[in-house]
Design goal:
398 residues, mainly beta, Neuraminidase, four-stranded antiparallel beta sheet, 1 helix, 34% strand, globular
């Protein structure tokens, strides 16, 4: 009996060793195929950036934070941008602050970097309306004032509009004001799951004083970028698709957001495609074609990670660019061949996606990761880069 038990235990040890080795080999395989190609970060040189003839790129601000890796999660550099009275404000979530970058001598470079407000919980989205600066933190939405105009939030002016935003998972919160209402996007808590809190993977709408919040649109896994069309007033949003369906699925998306719309996540993606990897239930017909399910407006390359977006109606670019949508691709982190790390322009008449500014990805080396884009008063583009720690200015030079 003793020999039998000894042999049995020995066999079990061999079996468990085999299982452990299999798991290790699987991890190595996945790491090689998905993690091993994660690019290293360089210093963000702009001479590598290619754009159409006549365009130039300069550094508006530098040394705002840098990172050594391209993993998901908060990066130390600048994220979302906002202009008020031609003064640039930028959120830096990892440092818990909103910075202000004045250009008093108007040489198209920030004179200095000052702190507008600090001590915040991963501040991300920024907006200004009627004397109030709205700041979307991970766990709350606040607004502050600067009535004396010293570019320093007034002491005691903080009003907390929401104090119980769900945390963990996607940490970004983006806030916009349109027609005297607040819009707030909140990403999912997971890669693919059914959320218990209806505010997650959704865009909310509420009053300016933080009351009467409702879910405006749902099924949006991680809509970091929001913008209202300057002519039509329609709301557009980027959306980052789920991971682990391969290099080319699911597509990332540009969505035209309709009130009451369901954009599919977690069981649908793109042009109403059913995610059978997540949802294994059997249906008589495609569940993504049910009422209120809304297909994407534009499908983008999977894992490009589109973030900030802005419509161009400035007066300094060639006329062909008027009405185009500019989108920042933050770049992939789990794709065998890295993709993204660029800015595209989309012809909204044909919905054609064109490379506009490329070169932040050089082989497996990353020089930067574009995050947000806004149109400055002079018609140039300002772009944040949270890995190189820079703000770029793109302008038409000839």
């Amino acid at each position: 009996m003793g020999l039998y038990m000894s042999g049995l235990l020995s066999g079990m040890r061999v079996m468990w060793i085999g299982i452990v080795l299999s798991v290790i080999l699987l991890v190595i395989f996945l790491s090689f195929n998905y993690l091993g190609v994660r690019p290293s970060i360089s210093s963000g040189e702009i001479e590598n950036i290619s754009m159409p003839d006549g365009f130039a790129i300069d550094i508006y601000a530098d040394d705002l934070g840098s990172s050594l890796i391209s993993y998901p999660g908060p990066s130390p550099g600048p994220r979302m941008l906002m202009l008020k009275d031609d003064i640039l404000f930028v959120s830096i979530p990892n440092k818990g602050l909103v910075a202000v970058l004045p250009d008093q001598d108007q040489d198209n470079k920030a004179d200095e970097v000052d702190v507008f407000i600090s001590g915040l919980d991963s501040p991300h989205g920024l907006e200004y309306h009627d004397g109030w600066f709205y700041i979307a933190e991970e766990s709350r939405l606040i607004r502050v004032r600067d009535d004396d105009g010293d570019l320093d939030a007034d002491d005691g002016s903080i009003q907390v509009l929401i104090d119980d935003l769900p945390t963990r998972g996607h940490y970004t919160r983006t806030v916009k004001v349109h027609d005297d209402a607040l819009y707030l996007s909140i990403g999912s808590s997971c890669n693919a799951c059914y959320e218990e809190d209806e505010r997650r993977a959704a865009i909310l709408r509420g009053e300016l004083d933080g009351s009467n919040w409702k879910v405006f649109a749902r099924g949006l896994r991680n809509s970091v970028g929001l913008t209202f069309h300057p002519l039509t007033g329609e709301l557009y949003a980027t959306d980052n698709g789920r991971d682990w369906l391969g290099d080319d699925l699911p597509p990332d998306e540009i969505n035209l957001i309709r009130e009451g719309g369901n954009y599919g996540w977690p069981i649908c993606y793109g042009d109403n495609i059913h995610d059978t990897d997540f949802d294994t239930n059997q249906y008589i017909r495609n569940p993504c074609m049910e009422p209120f399910e809304t297909a994407s407006l534009i499908d983008l390359q999977a894992h490009s990670a589109p973030l900030g977006l802005a419509f161009y109606y400035g007066d300094s670019f060639p006329e062909d660019y008027n009405g185009d949508l500019f989108v920042c691709y933050h770049g992939s982190w789990n794709r065998q061949e890295p993709t993204g790390y660029k800015i595209v322009n989309i012809d909204m008449d044909t919905l054609t996606v064109n490379d506009f500014a490329t070169g932040w990805l050089q082989g497996n080396k990353v020089l930067g990761r574009p995050v947000d884009v806004i149109v400055a008063d002079d018609g140039s583009l300002l772009v944040s880069d949270d890995n190189a720690g820079k703000i770029y200015r793109i302008h038409y030079a000839s």
